[in-house]
Design brief:
Structural class of chain A: alpha+beta
Shape of chain B: globular
Distance between the termini of chain B: 18 Å
Strand content of chain A: 35-45%
CATH class of chain A: Alpha Beta
Number of domains of chain A: 1
Number of helices of chain B: 7
CATH architecture of chain B: 3-Layer(aba) Sandwich
Strand order of the largest sheet of chain A: 1-3-8-9-10
Largest interface: A-B, 33 and 32 residues
Order of helices and strands of chain A: EEEEEHEHEEEE
Largest sheet of chain B: 7 strands, antiparallel
CATH topology of chain B: Chemotaxis protein chec
Oligomer: heterodimer
Largest sheet of chain A: 5 strands, mixed
Number of strands of chain B: 7
Radius of gyration of chain B: 17 Å
Chain lengths: 161, 215
């Protein structure tokens, strides 16, 4: 069995084959995966908020979607990944509580938007996503295949993207 | 991030026994009000026992509460306005949620294995009634005005349910008051948690009330 590494809230991990990266219980947070299939290296981010520029805490850039993508990308390039080969997958960005129309409630949606913007800017292809809705997700990245498995409590199902 | 956490720990570590008792007392008063409200709603005697009451850093909520972020829970979340904007989350482990709705609909405890939409409304209402009673107690005690807003319900993984409060409220608030309770009906006991996340105004009112010096 491959070694399993847990990626906690506000953290990221880089790994090479054969390793499994896992984040449990993603709600409005966003899990961002960058993977280079030739080298079989990649990383998983568990980001909390959309933009570093808006954040109160400046000590941890991994908390934010935009800055965390730059940092993970830089790590992968240093490890020898070819930028044009890197693909991205994102999961999460839910709205867990359905009520009110207040704009502070849509942090999940803003996280998704921030990720798409940043990936576009860096010309990284977003291969697949499993985002939005109102459910929590556990995500598991298998470094051998680059396959991302999503588990949901609400539907008791597992899917691969 | 580590810096923020160490401040929180320091605050908590600095509380004297008397101050901890004071916090516990806030929990007791709130729970007593909630029990009365719930009893009159269900037309039978429900008691709410406060098993512990303490303050922790908002980012430590998950570990402090149950530990496993994949545990299934029900959360009733409401924003509180009046003096400032605050947040209140009532959290029930899924097992206990089922038992509470059985109690609500006067079914034998253990009947439910899943929540129907009617059950979800019931748990939302139980959360709502308890939260309002708790807020009344707080506003009487502290002499401030607190208005509840319409509650929202989420039934999902603990990690996912806690993320919203941690994210949005965490931008303004550093700590959360956790009151761990047990709902008691005859010999049955169910766990429930009140998580009150007051913003600066109320934090200060609480600290002043109990003469707790922060930093």
């Amino acid at each position: 069995m491959s070694k399993e590494i847990l990626v906690e809230v506000g953290k990221y991990r880089v790994a090479s084959n054969p390793t499994i990266l896992k984040s449990i219980g993603i709600g409005s947070c966003l899990s961002i995966i960058l993977y280079e299939p030739d080298k079989r290296i990649g990383g998983m981010i568990h980001a909390m908020l959309p933009y570093y520029g808006e954040g109160r805490d400046k000590h941890n850039p991994i908390k934010y979607v935009d800055t965390s993508i730059y940092i993970l990308l830089d790590d992968l390039l240093r490890m020898g990944a070819k930028k044009e080969k890197i693909i991205a997958k994102i999961a999460g960005g839910s709205q867990m509580f359905s009520f009110l129309g207040s704009d502070i409630m849509n942090v999940g949606e803003r996280n998704i938007k921030a990720a798409k913007e940043t990936l576009k800017k860096e010309k990284i292809r977003l291969k697949s996503e499993e985002t939005g809705g109102n459910c929590g997700r556990t995500v598991i990245l298998d470094m051998v295949t680059g396959g991302l498995t999503i588990r949901k409590v609400s539907e008791n199902i597992e899917q691969n993207i | 991030m580590n810096e923020e956490k160490s401040i929180n720990y320091e605050r908590i570590a600095n509380l004297t026994d008397i101050q901890k008792d004071a916090l516990r007392e806030i929990g007791n008063i709130g729970a007593a009000h909630a029990a009365t409200a719930l009893s009159s709603m269900l037309k039978e005697t429900i008691m709410i026992d406060v098993t512990s009451s303490h303050i922790i850093g908002i980012e430590d909520m998950q570990n402090e509460l149950f530990g496993d972020p994949s545990d299934k829970v029900a959360g009733v979340f409401m924003q509180v306005t009046g003096s400032g904007t605050h947040n209140l989350l009532m959290l029930f482990p899924f097992e206990n949620t089922l038992q509470l709705v059985d109690m609500f609909f006067k079914r034998p405890i253990g009947t439910s294995t899943e929540l129907s939409s009617k059950d979800e409304s019931a748990i939302n209402e139980i959360g709502n009634v308890c939260a309002c009673a708790y807020l009344n107690a707080m506003s009487d005690l502290l002499g401030i005005t607190l208005f509840p807003t319409v509650p929202g319900l989420a039934v999902d993984m603990l990690g996912a349910v806690l993320q919203f409060p941690v994210l949005e409220i965490g931008r303004r608030v550093d700590y959360v008051i956790i009151i761990q309770t047990q709902f008691i009906r005859n010999a049955d006991r169910f766990n429930g948690y009140f998580l009150f996340m007051p913003d600066d105004d109320v934090q200060k009112a609480i600290m002043d009330k109990f003469k707790i010096n922060v930093k």
